[in-house]
Here is the input.
Amino acid sequence: MGIFRRRPKRDDSGAPRDPEFAYFSTGEAARFRAQVRESFAEHGLEVTVYADHVTDSSGRQFGLGNLAALCHNEPRGPRAWPGLVHHHVGLVLRTMDSPSALDTLPPEQIRAQLYPRVISDNSIDPANFDYARDVGPGLYEILALDLPESVMMLTDEALEPLGEVGELRAQALRNLAQLPVEGHETVRGDDGMTFEVVVGDSFYTASRVLALESLVRHVTGQELTADGALVALPFRHQLAFHAIRDAGVLPALGAMAAFAASGYEEAPGAISPYVYWWRAGTLTQLSELTEKGLRIVVGDDFQELLERLVGG
Here is the structure.
């Protein structure tokens, strides 16, 4: 999975945009939703199609956000959408109709396939994830069971028979640390700006921010200092970081803020459009999106760091 994706041939950017998925023209969105309805029908299920989800006669709801982003980023363009949608719908229905893995897998296998996952606060219902750990503004860590065709986010009810949450989390973090680094690229600018991007098909690539120190050591061969790092996790398959060591933090901050905002907007599994300051495992938000565009916002602690490294 590359950092910058080649755009497929699509409707002109001047065409009217879909209100829900702005990366689609209204024509593309209509084609996408028609394909979704047709694919569900091919699998024997009639659904009612809404802007961002579909529902069946029993009230089950299927979100369309990730699938829409997958189609948008498909290099072959709309001609490939039928096959992509058909595969995705089949996967979703098989997952929902199959017995729960929590009932069929032995406890030791469940623990071996347990991973922590960082998600946005709008991705879960807090009533079902009381155990979720706050890792930064708008970000939560939950536990997930990795399955061959899906990822099961574990609710409070699902975790209860598995054991103590702290022990389960410790096991999940050990599993995360053992994942290979699938891909790594260094982004460089003319002004000497650099930051690193780790990419992969794993659903837990961005979640490696939870083990940032070991990841930085593996990727760069160096240890993080007490000043920490800049990090961005725009979507689940991508994690960017810049180890803070000198005045290079300033150009990296602006570049990573733009990078995060761009990656978040059109990707499946979106997490956050912001850049954060990672220090001793704590994330502090450094950018925000306003009506006037992207803005860098720093507090007193980070301002003091900048003055020390860059000069006040």
